[in-house]
Structure formats: structure tokens, C-alpha cells
Specification:
The mean pLDDT is about 85. Helices cover about 80% and strands about 0% of the residues. The chain is mainly alpha-helical. The chain has two domains: about 80 residues; about 45 residues, no CATH class. The termini are far apart. The chain contains five helices and no strands. Helix 1 runs antiparallel to helix 2, helix 2 packs antiparallel against helix 3 and helix 4 packs across helix 5.
Length: about 130
């Protein structure tokens, strides 16, 4: 097949194939790094809102430590499956959300107070 192509064009084809392969490789690596960066940003945001147990495996993923990230997500899934596990996970985040509404949104704060004082939230609480 390449017998009829001059050696100069053969070298050019090989160089173009290598260049194309390099560009594809760099594009894939760039996508992976961008995904890790977004995971790190999400982990920072989750930590600010009190979801540190969810942020820890995301931080491990963003640093490229996939085995620790998987172990963290498995431990988190086991914790959520236990009775009261999801509530314990979200408790700090809910408190921070309520504090945020109390400080910035009077309408939403009044709505939350009405829900709590009206007993609607207490109907499903088991002592």
C-alpha cells in the first residue's frame, strides 16, 4: 500500500498521525483535569454548607485518589442506609440553610417559622 507513496509523503503521514494522536491525548487529559477541578470546587462548596462527609470523597477524587474516593462513597452509602443516617448527614446543612434564610430572606424565614410553629414539621418526628 505504501509502496507507491514517496518516502517524503510517508514521513508526512506518520508525522500527521502522531500529531493527531497527541492532540486527542491532550484533549482527553484536559477533560479529566477539568472534571477533577469541578469536583474540587464542589467539595469546597459542600464543605462550606456543612456536608463535609460528602465533600471528603469528592476531594479525594479531585486529587486523583480513586481508591480512597470509592471507599469514602461506600462508607457514606452505608451510613445513609442506617436509621437516621441521612438526617445526621444533612443536619448541619439544614441548620446553615436556616441561618442563611434568617439572615438574608425575611419572607422565607417567616415561612420556615410558620412551618415549625404550626406543628407541620412535628407530625412526622418520632421521639
Amino acid at each position: 500500500m505504501f509502496d507507491t507513496i514517496s518516502p517524503g509523503y510517508q514521513y508526512l503521514l506518520i508525522a500527521l498521525a502522531a500529531f493527531s494522536g497527541t492532540l486527542v491525548f491532550l484533549w482527553v487529559i484536559n477533560r479529566i483535569q477539568a472534571r477533577r477541578q469541578r469536583a474540587g470546587d464542589l467539595a469546597d462548596a459542600l464543605s462550606e454548607w456543612g456536608l463535609t462527609r460528602l465533600a471528603k470523597p469528592l476531594r479525594e477524587y479531585s486529587q486523583g485518589d480513586y481508591s480512597e474516593a470509592i471507599e469514602g462513597f461506600v462508607a457514606l452509602a452505608k451510613e445513609i442506609r442506617q436509621p437516621g443516617g441521612a438526617i445526621a448527614l444533612l443536619e448541619t446543612a439544614v441548620k446553615k440553610c436556616v441561618e442563611h434564610y434568617a439572615a438574608t430572606n425575611a419572607t422565607k424565614c417567616a415561612e420556615l417559622i410558620g412551618i415549625l410553629q404550626g406543628g407541620a414539621a412535628m407530625k412526622n418526628v418520632v421521639p
